[in-house]
Design brief:
Length: 311
């Protein structure tokens, strides 16, 4: 803390140096010394020493006292903000946070959990006590099995991406013949990326374009089996399509895109046009709110997608 003598010496310096706007200079002085002197003593300085040395009017004294009050309120707010516990908001389906790594949901019976790359496991209901805010509690899909999670937590499972790549490539080659061998690499790499696509700002779409009965649906079936939370758009409503991506970060598989009717086709187009770039991957929709009135909800459309059509 600055001593009374030091404060008086600084005030003497202000008196000696000619000042065009002494009131503003005194305001600056108050903010500079606010943290170094007791506020009660500072108010006393304004009412006595400062008033006398600068020959202030009572009006100016009140202005300076108001500045002290303002600085006091700001200091209090800063202290409260610094003491506030940080709330981490996550998408439980798939997310990434520096302190937790990748985050996923898994189910054990009717109970939902999140598991993180660093080995933490939280039940949905206890996340609030851990200062974790879940963006959604209604997750309905998960690729993780409880036993797989248990092995991961115990560090009994070692994942080698090269082995996963080779196994997936061999499975696809077993069922699908492709003249261009490079396409196998594209399909496998695309499948693997669906499990951590939220690390990126952009996601790629796959376009399967070919004659009828050329094997597009078979490829879609394999992609559905191995991709993260894959969801087919066959015979679904527009509302279901939007909710599926927003709620479960689903990988959309759009078979026979050319046959989509006007309503669902327009919805698919909106999802495709916005869903590849995270910064614009939102589509507004009117929903009935808790009061019974309509309100606007932004649905996330960000996820990898596959479009298949006959030529």
């Amino acid at each position: 803390m600055t001593s009374r003598k030091q404060i008086e010496e600084k005030l003497e310096e202000l008196v000696v140096i000619p000042i065009e706007d002494p009131l503003q200079k005194l305001k600056d002085f108050i903010y500079e010394e606010f943290e170094n002197i007791d506020t009660r003593e500072l108010r006393g300085f304004v009412k006595s020493v400062i008033k006398e040395k600068f020959k202030l009017r009572e009006k100016d004294v009140q202005i300076l006292l108001a500045e002290i009050k303002s600085a006091e309120n700001k200091q209090k707010l800063v202290k409260e903000l610094l003491e506030t516990t940080e709330i981490i908001e996550i998408d439980p389906v798939m997310d990434y946070k520096e302190q937790e790594g990748m985050i996923y949901t898994f189910f054990k019976g009717d109970t939902k959990y999140v598991v993180t790359s660093v080995g933490n496991v939280y039940e949905y209901e206890e996340c609030k006590d851990k200062n974790i805010k879940l963006k959604s509690m209604s997750t309905s899909m998960s690729k993780l099995l409880p036993k797989t999670v248990a092995k991961f937590i115990q560090r009994k499972t070692k994942v080698k991406i090269s082995e996963i790549y080779s196994k997936l490539r061999n499975i696809i080659k077993k069922y699908v013949f492709l003249e261009d061998e490079n396409i196998y690499a594209v399909l496998v790499t695309w499948i693997i990326h669906t499990y951590f696509f939220k690390l990126f700002m952009y996601v790629p779409y796959l376009w399967l374009n070919g004659d009828k009965s050329s094997g597009k649906s078979l490829i879609l079936s394999l992609l559905s089996k191995f991709s993260f939370n894959a969801f087919s758009s066959v015979s679904v409503t527009e509302a279901t399509l939007f909710r599926q991506v927003d709620r479960d970060s689903s990988v959309l598989l759009l078979d026979e895109y050319e046959k989509a009717n006007a309503g669902i086709g327009e919805a698919i187009t909106q999802i495709l046009n916005s869903g590849f770039y995270v910064e614009v991957a939102k589509v507004p929709r009117n929903i009935v709110g808790s009061t019974g009135d309509y309100e606007t909800k932004l649905y996330s459309t960000f996820s990898p997608k596959v479009i298949s059509r006959n030529i």
